[in-house]
From TrEMBL:
This is 14031_t:CDS:1. Residues 1-45 are annotated as: Disordered. It comes from Acaulospora morrowiae. Residues 7-32 have a biased composition (Basic and acidic residues).
Length: 45
């Protein structure tokens, strides 16, 4: 992992935004995310 240039607070906010995006995508494709069952790594880490 590369050292992050973001503060922990910024990372939390980015993660929240990412979670919301994933949640809305999950509603559109529930089957695929259920089958995979794993969280992809956050881009940039």
């Amino acid at each position: 992992m590369k050292p992050s240039t973001h503060t922990a607070k910024e990372r939390d906010q980015n993660f929240e935004r990412y979670r919301h995006q994933k949640a809305s995508r999950k509603e559109q494709e529930p089957d695929r995310s259920k089958k995979r069952g794993c969280i992809p790594p956050i881009v940039g880490e």
